[in-house]
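Lab notebook, bench 4. Still working through the backlog of constructs that have no structural model yet. Next entry is a single chain of 442 residues. Request: give me the structure tokens for it.
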Amino acid sequence: MTGVATSFFDSVKMIAAEKGIPEEDVFLAVEEALAKAADKFFNSQDFYGNFQAQMDRETGEFHVYALKQVVAEVEEEDLEISLKEAQALNPDAAEGDTLWLPQDTSQLGRIAAQAAKQVLVQKVREAERDRIFTEFAGRIGEVVVAEVKRFEKSAIILEIDRVEAMLRRNEALRGDRFDKGQRIKVVILAVDRSAKDPQVQVSRTDPRLLIKLFENEVPEIHDGTVVIRNCVREAGDRAKVAVHSLDPDVDPVGACVGLKGSRVQAIIRELKNEKIDIVRYDDDPARFIANALNPAKALRVTISALEDRRVEVVVDDEQLSVAIGKRGQNVRLAAKLTGWNIDVRSEADKRREAEAAMGFTLPAAEASEEAAAPAAPASSLLAELGPVEGVDAALADRIAAAGYPDAKSLYTVTVEQLMRVEGMDQDLAFRLIDAVQAHFGE
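Model written out:
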């Protein structure tokens, strides 16, 4: 097998260098492959035994041996050799020793080579997977620059340090459009030793990417003067970052924004124009929540249920839609950032509540007329808004029973509040809020 040995030897050297795998690991894989090929070949010749292969690390020559145990009386000829025969081959042989008997490999030919190559490929793949897992398991959360290699139906395949990584479509930003060969920033999300696809999973939607980008762009964060206390994202759309300064002379928000917005704008460009609200962290929950609702200005923040971490925030009437945000996004992100459930109310709503609590009532005639008037059916909500996909009369009745009988009452509602209504899911809540905003011309 000299010719085969030479080609194998060259292949081993090449694969080891190309894949970054220790040569010895590949040599051992080749030896195992040859032993299996020899086992298959000799078994076909009615010679059953225990075979081992050895490869000379210097010359690349291969040798195959049949291993036989030295015994006083042979019972299995393929696996045992008598003491007398063993001592004829090796005078120092003793009972219980294992003799390595050289085998003629000239007949193995292409069958052995092909079998060895197949096992070699498998072993190299396993070794490479182990290497990738070992290398990347400690790098989860690290932001790296990856090169776009190719596009698949559900993912973009990237390359990081000569290793393929997978960016699934749902981990990419909505505005991401890449060209082959383009270099992009991603965060290492996970690594899977057993995955059939590329083992390394990366993301551009993970909040850790935004945190690392701030660390790279803002020296005060890099050196620890300014600390990011929390970061939440609706990737590709909007994010909120809570920052705190350990130096009273350093403004954490100003440091992150940079001169004329230069620092934050660099991050926004990297994230395809994702809006970023930089929020000043405060140990006082009320002040922190008020800051988190930026750009809306809160008039009052009142803790309504400490055990449920629920607060009520009152804003000017014209600030209500800003505080809630499109599809409730602003208040939703503020709630995630602070860890509090936030109910936003307008000053007008609070004033009406206060008047009712103080005993201001309708004149008797008006009150009796109103009492005599039949209650508007809950389904009148649909009459105001028009058809809303997924909202039927029965669901409209349940929405009304929950305290939202008309479009006006739904104007300040959040997705979280609507989700408490039986039969309501998140997508349906978003559609209903969109319909309400459209009704009021937003």
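Notes after review: Residues 148 and 180 are 5 Å apart (CA to CA). The longest helix spans residues 109-137. Flag for follow-up if needed.
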